[in-house]
């Protein structure tokens, strides 16, 4: 098999634009809200949404904390202004500090990182509800397969415009659309603690990670992938283990079956196949 990331389809922009229009301009929905981190994923989603929906229907929200530099904040605000979308900045440090004060016995760094992601999600939904809009996720296929997101944090969204694109494809589309060089060059980071980067935490760059993910999706074994990609076996196994370990993030929560379900499926109905509506 060929463990190479597929070329970016020529129609990808048109397909995503159509997806966004059919969902975020449907009955009862008046646009979209997207969190802006200064990274390539959120910058790309904001650009695609602006092009598809119109700049007046997109709200970009910066959610800086104490580690968010003033230079990055200024750059991200200027990017939103260049797109012509409405922007808002909500400093989340006081909210995070309130949680820390209420839970003084919690010290784990990852726990607090996940709490920060959930604060961001709650803020985005509060703003989206007021405007009858949907929250756009910025997760890509690589992150989703890896489970490299916070459950009910950055994983809590209404739409995933770039959810089928591997990270390397995200970079290719950002280059095609000529997103600013600093955005494209910045090391990917969830910004959950100072100096965090995706690739340091995952142990590989996304070019290698994506080749592993493609091969896993094609049914190749860990050994076959290591031989084909010339990547260390331990790194390949680590990625494969992460994909399997985080399956729970990609499926609905298990439901106790007590024999009272009268639906035709006899189980969890799952999300509607129609367009999501702005929350009442």
Main beta sheet:
4 strands, parallel
End-to-end span in angstroms? 48 Å
CATH topology of the domain at 13-200, by name, is Rossmann fold
The oligomerization state is: single chain
**Rg to the nearest angstrom?**
19 Å
The string of secondary-structure elements, in order, is HEHEHEHHEHHHHHHH
- What does the average pLDDT come to? 92
User: Strand order across the biggest sheet?
Assistant: 3-2-1-4
CATH top-level class of the domain at 13-200: Alpha Beta
State the secondary-structure class. Answer: mainly alpha
Uncertain segments are 269-275
Tell me the β content. 5-15%
Tally of extended strands? Answer: 4
How many helices does DSSP assign? 12
Shape: globular
Q: Level of helix content? A: 40-55%
CATH architecture of the domain at 13-200: 3-Layer(aba) Sandwich
Query: By CATH's scheme, which homologous superfamily of the domain at 13-200 applies?
Result: HUPs
């Amino acid at each position: 098999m060929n463990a190479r990331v597929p070329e970016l389809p020529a129609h990808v922009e048109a397909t995503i634009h159509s997806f966004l229009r059919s969902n975020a301009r449907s009955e009862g929905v008046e646009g979209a809200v997207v969190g802006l981190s200064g990274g390539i994923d959120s910058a790309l989603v904001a650009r695609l949404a602006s092009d598809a929906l119109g700049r007046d229907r997109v709200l970009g929200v910066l959610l800086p904390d104490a580690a968010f530099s003033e230079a990055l904040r200024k750059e991200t605000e200027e990017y939103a202004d260049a797109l012509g979308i409405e922007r808002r900045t909500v400093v989340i440090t006081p909210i995070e500090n309130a949680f820390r004060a209420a839970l003084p016995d919690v010290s784990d760094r990852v726990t607090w990182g996940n709490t920060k992601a959930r604060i961001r999600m709650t803020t985005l939904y509060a703003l989206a509800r007021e405007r009858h809009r949907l929250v756009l996720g910025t997760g890509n296929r690589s992150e989703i397969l890896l489970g490299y997101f916070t459950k009910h944090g950055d994983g809590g969204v209404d739409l995933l415009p770039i959810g089928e694109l591997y990270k390397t494809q995200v970079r290719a589309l950002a280059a095609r659309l000529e997103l600013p060089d600093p955005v494209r060059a910045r090391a990917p980071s969830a910004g959950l603690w100072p100096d965090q980067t995706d690739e340091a935490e995952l142990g590989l760059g996304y070019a290698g990670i994506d080749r592993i993910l493609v091969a896993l999706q094609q049914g190749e074994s860990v050994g076959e992938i290591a031989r084909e990609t010339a990547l260390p076996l331990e790194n390949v196994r680590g990625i494969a283990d992460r994909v399997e370990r985080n399956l729970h993030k990609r499926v609905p929560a298990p439901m106790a079956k007590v024999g009272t379900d009268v639906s035709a499926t006899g189980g969890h109905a799952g999300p509607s196949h129609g367009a999501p509506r702005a929350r009442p």
